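hi! just following up on the protien thing from before. the input was this:
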Amino acid sequence: MRCPNCQTVNPPNAKFCLECGNRLVVCPNCGTVNLPNAKFCIECGTALTSTSTLGSENPLPAQQPAKSERAPSLSELDGSKSRLAAPEERRVVTIMFADITGSTPLADRLDPEDMRAILAGYFNLMTEQIRRHGGTVEKYIGDAVMAVFGAPFAHEDDPDRAIRAALDMQAALARFNQRRQAQDPEATRLRMRIGVNTGEVAGPGAQFSRRDFLITGDAVNVAARLQQVAGPDTILVGERTYLATRNVFDFRPLAPLTLKGKSEPIRAWVVDSFRSRTPAVIQHPRGIEGLEAPLVGRDLELTLIHATYARVQAERHSHLITLLGAPGIGKSRLVREFIAREEELAKSASRVGLLSTPRVLQGRCPPYGEGITYWPLVEILRILLKVQDGESGEELEGRFNEFVRNTLATAKRNEDPVEITNAIVRSLGRGLRGDGKEPGYTEMRDIQRSTHSKSTEQGGPQAAVMRAWRVLLEAIAQREPLILVIDDLQWADEALLDLLEYLTDRITDVPILFFCPARPDFLERRRDWGGGRRNFTTIVLDALTSEESVDLITGLLRTHELPDVLYHTI
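and the predicted 3d structure came back as:
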């Protein structure tokens, strides 16, 4: 049976919709599904009773209410409606408005069907970019699109996602114009203006699925006004969006704007470009620039990590450390502290020939983007090759082939370097060819999708990929200890996780430490991660104690004169 509220097809015995929770009322006479507050069937007019649900196996015949029965009061009807209405909730979201400039004169010159075809192509392209970055299209208004980032599903980097989507929308529109002008050289070039703003809004509860969220709030009005005053091919953002994303993008400030309906001038910024040229979607930077305190409360964890690495060096065997902790609890800081201390220790000991300085290679799993199977390894290879902006794919593959050949020769390995190179390049798809120009999300999505399964380890292309990575890493670690940091493991593809397990189990006779920070929900997806293996260690970072928190605040602010109530509040 199909729910009349959200059109979801439910099983025959359902009493409530499995998608929106709506009560399903079926007519006992004709079997039509009606709205929950319907008194009579919309198909045959039969009176409906409260027992007429979709799940009733023996529906009772319809009964007319007795004449003496009291009619419900107006207040009771209002209460019934309120129980059926979606509960409101307040949340912070990022709103985007985008429209085509000069669409009215264009519509005057074009046939209505041609104009409709142009707008349909435009809307499809814009919707694809918005959804690709986790946004939701709330409505189309004429030639404008309104999108929301943060509802119904919130992400920690929704302002970043909105601006990334806006930049991709501009790039998609440029390609759309090129295709139109290739077919018709006299076609008018479409131009777009975008307004983005972040703020608190009111909208329906997340448990209610609707095509139109109907969110309301001043943040929505400001986003619409920013779009109206933005110039063609310009992305204009409000103050809260700017503050949340200024470490990710470069902006150009504007003079305060006087917007319609606003009594005070509004500060706004124009998005210029990405600050970082990496082609991956990176995690939003954390912390306050310029403030760094001594490491507090992690002595035991740091001692365990150093002891594990010492055993890796002594036994010349691989080991994998999974560092679990909530966002912002200090995982990255602990990794940096460990690496800095090991490098300092190795420098001191190398004078007498006791220790070698470890080679540290780092990669990060992007938070979203289908098909980024081995992206952390792509970043590691680009570090090894010291990739420069502007290098072509052919040049990179040639340099990588030479790097593999020299590395295997130095390590005195007998494997065929061409076979190793081809297997790794195939596993990376177009990732190694990334030119570092943003937005590079389209490049990332072209990387192969994961096709790995446990059964492929015995043979086939995936076995060749695993073997190739093992041979290359073993050859690199022959000269010096290797520390591989794979950050944000909770976002890793399943094939990458399987490869890390394989490498940790199979690499022998060389010192390699895999260091993998992750959030606690990682174990919900991979419950058997490292279970029962001698060379797997999991360290969980708990919150600091009250005394440690006081030490942290004192170290950050460099003062002991704060009142106790302020320490407690922080």
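The chain has a mean pLDDT of 80.
The chain has three domains: 1-60, 88-274, 299-546.
cheers
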